[in-house]
Amino acid sequence: MAPGSVIAVDALPLTPNGKLDRKALLALEGAPETAAYEAPRNATEEKLAEIWEQVLKVDRVGVHDDFFHLGGHSLLMTQIIARIRSVFGVQLALFTLFEHPTIAGLAAAIDGAAHSATAGAAEDDVARLLAELQGMSDEEVNRLLEETN
């Protein structure tokens, strides 16, 4: 990973307890600006925004805000992925957040994963039914068809 921009400063801004003051660092002239705020547009984006706000401890997350520009890092990524699994019931690889670092991109990946899982489950159901039908005699299949009509 390479930084998106570099800013020369005389000294790093520190908090009263001597730690790096990230908010003051972002306020420095020339610091990269975040994307213009755009509110979540659907239920997936709304839930994701809530997760990011809680994990990143920010007041508001727009659909085009970048996870890493908001202070996200690898440890927080694991929390995000775990909460996505819990809330949406989909298993995403950790690198998915590198590929889709915005709410909009990640929501599309979640919706795609959920669709694939649903389609896969339907295919499994069809395969199971076909296997059951192959084990039946013609009379059993005809009787089953008559019962369903």
Please explain how this structure is put together:
It is rod-shaped and about 85 Å long. The protein is built from six helices and no strands. The longest helix has 32 residues. Helix content is 55%, strand content 0%. It starts with 21 loop residues before the first helix and ends with a helix. The model has no long low-confidence stretch (mean pLDDT 82).
Strand content: under 5%
Got a strand count? 0
How large is the radius of gyration?
A: 24 Å
Mass-distribution shape: rod-shaped
Tally of contiguous helical segments:
6
What is the domain total for the residues? Answer: 2
Structural class: mainly alpha
CATH architecture of the largest domain: Orthogonal Bundle
CATH class of the largest domain: Mainly Alpha
Write down the overall mean pLDDT. Answer: 82
CATH homology group of the largest domain: ACP-like
Order of helices and strands: HHHHHH
Portion of residues within helices: 55-70%
Runs in which pLDDT lies below 50 for 5 or more consecutive residues are none
Quick tags:
single chain, 149 residues, mainly alpha, Non-ribosomal Peptide Synthetase Peptidyl Carrier Protein, Chain A
Topology:
Elements: H1 22-26, H2 43-56, H3 74-88, H4 95-99, H5 103-134, H6 138-148
Helix pairs in contact: 2-3, 2-5
